[in-house]
Amino acid sequence: MAGTSKVSRGGYAVYLIPGVVLSVAIIVVPLVMTVYTSFTRWTGVGSPTWIGFDNYTRLFQDANFWASFGHIILLIIAMAVIPTFLGLVLAALLFDYIAKHFSNRWASFFRSGFYLPQVLPVAVTGIVWGWILHPSYGALNKILESIGLGGLAKNWLGDPKYALYSVMGVMIWFQLGYPIVMFMSGLQRINPELYEAADLDGATWWQRFRRITVYMIRPEFYVVLITTTIAALKIFGQVFVLTRGGPSNATLVPSYFAYKNFFEKAQVGYGSAISTVLTVLIIVLAIVFLRLQNRAERG
Amino acid sequence: MTVTAAPAIMTDQEEPPRKAAKRRNPVRFGILTALLILLLLVVAPLLVVAVNAVKSPADYAGGGPLSLPTHLYWDGIVNFWNRVDFGTKLWNSFITSFTVAVLGVLLSILNAYALGIGRVKGRIWFLVFFLVANLLPQEVLVYPLYFLSKEVGIYDNLISIVIIFTVIQAAFGTYLLTSVYTEFPVELLDAAAVDGAGKWRTLWRIVVPVSMPTLGVLFTFFFIWTWNEFFLPLVFLISNDKQTVPVALGVLQGDRLMDATTTSASALIGILPAMLFFLIFQRTLTRGITAGAIK
């Protein structure tokens, strides 16, 4: 090997050993164990009993399971759809309007401000909002009362009618900054001459937004949509801290549903089945997104 | 996914010439005002928390959540700090996040060296594996990890969290760094080979120093991500003196002892370290969020 002027491509495999050994121990083995356990009845002690597809048939008849996935659809709207579209408009506004008519400083200032919620630990955002939305001493109800709208005061997180919408509101607040940062960086790639040409042709801001901005940052658009959608499917921390899936399961989500079965009800087999379904769903969704993305990039 | 490493750098481009006269005043300032109001709404919850964290309970009872504190009252924060032994939680969070960031970057380097520069056989399949590992929800790993960590006696020990997150973060790091190393300048590698440097020396003398900026981004990410993790630490760190900051704060929610001012005090001391990292790492972060995204 030594003495060749070309870099030898052999002998690198040894560098993979630590990574492979650790990945097998921490990812592959547990994954296989969970899938296996999903076909058993197990309380976590003793040995699991093989029961075939019983957990899955039970799962598909379980109203809580369907409810938890129904809630996820609303959370995808709150965590992926709304932040992506709102973020797109805001990013374009900051990049193409504020930076131009005011200064780049202003644009970066807004970008950092909107991004701020993203840097907080999820548990802390849960605490902040849990307090603001608290029915008796929470700031929101106090504010409503002080401006004479006491009638609108609600038990935001404790009333099954409003709990999920409150969580959705919190999640929009939390997510908004991520698309803004992503899109603003994507916009840097756009040749300013395109905008100038559009200006010369007398295009309105909205026309330029639709025809140039949206078109040019499709790659970022797909990345944001896929990562936020997957984040919505995995949501745990905020729900745990804000509502613990309650009241009466109104904010139950798959990950918390699995957690409850694992660690509160000692139904490990059933919890494993929930996690397995969630995993399959995420991977299928990722494949679909990647396909769409590839097609969009070619087309 | 067209993930590449070249972090899209957010350059402050040059100030475009002011097209004055054109669209002036009302619209311009209308839009600016609208954005400022929106920004205020986003930041308001944090401001409300900060204001109430330094209010005495009597002050709060009298003036409500929106009044400014009549005097600065630090006892709420101090009492909460002492009650939950917050110093220990901070240390636990710091030492796990730091160790994970260091080990995670090292592991990513080794993997990416083999996959990106060494192009070992089956590299595509390794990359697919690391990509899928990134997608997995932690719920599908948690119970076996919980069970196994009890078997080997590292349950309720920071070591368990360090090992798990090192591997999880390195899955992302490997993916990102491999695409950087795939485009590593061959001339540099050739020059090292001519000088008689072996693979090990080339890695540490050439590859690592050249890719330092990307490694810095990875380190920052791993640190903050691990700091913010909630689910696995919640499961693995059950005794009080092992908890990390998010877990300690998270499990206190709904506690009877938590009144309005104590809750905001607790939220504030949870926010402060995150804000500190945000300020320290801001430049790396804005550069890094977009890393790994787009070609």
From TrEMBL, chain A:
Segments forming domain ABC transmembrane type-1: 69-289
Topology with respect to the bilayer: Multi-pass membrane protein
Keyword Nucleotide-binding: no
InterPro entries, A to Z: ABC_transporter_permease, MetI-like, MetI-like_sf
Membrane-spanning segments: 12-33, 65-94, 114-132, 162-181, 221-242, 268-290
Family statement drawn from the similarity comment of this UniProt entry: Belongs to the binding-protein-dependent transport system permease family.
Record-given protein name: Raffinose/stachyose/melibiose transport system permease protein
Source organism: Paractinoplanes atraurantiacus
Automatic annotation (TrEMBL), chain B:
Topology with respect to the bilayer: Multi-pass membrane protein
Subcellular location: Cell membrane
Any one of the GO BP annotations: transmembrane transport
Superkingdom of origin: Bacteria
Coiled coil: none
Residue stretches spanning the membrane: 29-51, 90-112, 124-146, 158-182, 203-227, 263-281
Chain ranges of the ABC transmembrane type-1 domain: 90-281
Main localization category: membrane
Keywords linked to the UniProt accession: Cell membrane, Membrane, Transmembrane, Transmembrane helix, Transport
Entry-linked Pfam families: BPD_transp_1
CC per GO annotation: plasma membrane
Family indicated by similarity: Belongs to the binding-protein-dependent transport system permease family.
Name the UniProt record assigns to this protein: Raffinose/stachyose/melibiose transport system permease protein
Organism of this sequence: Paractinoplanes atraurantiacus
Lineage, opening ranks: Bacteria, Bacillati, Actinomycetota, Actinomycetes, Micromonosporales
